[in-house]
């Protein structure tokens, strides 16, 4: 346990994850990098929780791009069931084949002398129709069948029904599924599983227990500046700082929907498009709708704009 | 190392983080991968594997900081080395003859006295660590055990021998004895700190459980002001538990109605020959509650907590209207929803609270303005002691309410013994209620609300 090599190698590995994700334009905090490293090291899915737009889904994309793996995405919604998430029988094909083989049926059964022998032959025949050829893999099964491994993103798991969670349990702990007619199908190479949740409903303990639990909140000022830097390359340093400082002030207000990282990036892009070199109240007032998505939120924020802009401009001094 | 981690897992449970054996195995595997050297990486890994929510992460982070502030192996080693260097330097600096003298007298003393006189902090902390595992310090649960564990630890370290030494020294070498006494006082402090620390780490959960148990069974109307905040927290916890229990989707099969669409889909694999049937499901009614709370002086506190509970339950009880009355009745749903608990209670009390209760005129108010809110799906909850100051109770209105509603439940903060005595009109109201029960403690409150909500499942 106290392997003297382990500490340094773990720290380098985590730094490696951070650099790898950064190369894909995803600036990860240390916790995120540790989670990604651990999920690989001990083969565990990561359950990512946090407000909308902080980069939960982006994380999965970045991991896939960094490792050069295919990303398979399962978007959850109310009413999502086994047939859409896991597999379905290609019943049309089954029917078609039955029709075509109907003529052959006599030949197949013709050789049988007794009823028992005929039944035995029919039995083999039935198994053919419930074989792999007739299974239509849906995202979860696809992920397990991928020979080189993949990144499986199960997006917004909190939107699905509680029953669906139970369906996931076998996949998350053993990376295998059981199809009653075929038996268990285990992953050729365990996929990296990322589950995201906006905490719309509480997830079951059984699900949580099988995952590393990562919470991504709004990033700290420094980190957010780096994210903007990586995502919006054309932005000047002054504007970047002021913009991030301004958004942090906005987040302190009592809003219906707090602006998240994706809004920060959008706003930065807009400001670059408008060729703003610095934050000014006119520009801010005109573009506040990029940042805030509710009329009532804009009304709350408007009176504060002048103060916040002034405060953000002072930031630049230091 | 492993031992250390086990102790940390126990401490984590103490901090209120739910750690199952499977999770501790995960934590072990994670730690085996990342090692102990990098403190921040270790902290992140434990947080990722053990904590399952934001709150747990906070609690566990605090627990980690507390735990590894003292029990950190690597730092201790570094300290040891520094300490040894220091003692060596000191020893070299001290005149040879004086050291010889000290050594000679010390040879007759017990090991603890020698250790204290040598002021070797590394040895002392090692001895403390040994003593704490010898007496099972991590089993400490209640603050009342502090003294016991301190003295046990000192005993394990050999305080008896030290006392003898001290007596002997006072005769032969008073200066030395004084030094030893000083060192002993220091040791007592350190041991006391160690025990306090252990209590903070391992004892939190038990102590909290005990306090909660007492609080749950305390009379709501007699809660002391300093306990109100704790009681509010408890009520919220109860609400959360009820919510978890009852917020599962309310689906029941309705046999006899075939769900054609699902049946066809389910049987598609057999050429739509319906081997498996699917039946239509019906979502059960969501609870509808109308709560009428007496907030007159005598029962104000209880109704306070009750309103808080009902409103913390919003996920389950989506349709709830609350009314408060003493002399007359007003609707308070909005106040409760929009303001924080403290502000809302203050405002309600301001508007209708603390008067002398008049059930009759309050019921008249309700019938006049809000009778329409009672439907055949509604559970009407009355909360009060039914003491109407000898005014007309207007039980006929309650009868009409009960005819419209699904159920009428009366929760009375007084015990059954007192019903009907003095100005209590309980027996007259009782005839029109489906359920009547005394409700004086948090526990009874929880059971009552649980029953009400479960009737809709």
UniProtKB/TrEMBL annotation, chain A:
<dbReference type="InterPro" id="IPR003593">
    <property type="entry name" value="AAA+_ATPase"/>
</dbReference>
<dbReference type="InterPro" id="IPR011704">
    <property type="entry name" value="ATPase_dyneun-rel_AAA"/>
</dbReference>
<dbReference type="Pfam" id="PF07728">
    <property type="entry name" value="AAA_5"/>
</dbReference>
<protein>
    <submittedName>
        <fullName>MoxR family ATPase</fullName>
    </submittedName>
</protein>
<feature type="domain" description="AAA+ ATPase">
    <location>
        <begin position="42"/>
        <end position="220"/>
    </location>
</feature>
<dbReference type="InterPro" id="IPR027417">
    <property type="entry name" value="P-loop_NTPase"/>
</dbReference>
<dbReference type="InterPro" id="IPR050764">
    <property type="entry name" value="CbbQ/NirQ/NorQ/GpvN"/>
</dbReference>
From TrEMBL, chain B:
<dbReference type="Pfam" id="PF05762">
    <property type="entry name" value="VWA_CoxE"/>
</dbReference>
<feature type="region of interest" description="Disordered">
    <location>
        <begin position="74"/>
        <end position="103"/>
    </location>
</feature>
<protein>
    <submittedName>
        <fullName>VWA domain-containing protein</fullName>
    </submittedName>
</protein>
<feature type="compositionally biased region" description="Polar residues">
    <location>
        <begin position="84"/>
        <end position="95"/>
    </location>
</feature>
<dbReference type="InterPro" id="IPR011195">
    <property type="entry name" value="UCP010256"/>
</dbReference>
<dbReference type="InterPro" id="IPR008912">
    <property type="entry name" value="Uncharacterised_CoxE"/>
</dbReference>
<dbReference type="InterPro" id="IPR036465">
    <property type="entry name" value="vWFA_dom_sf"/>
</dbReference>
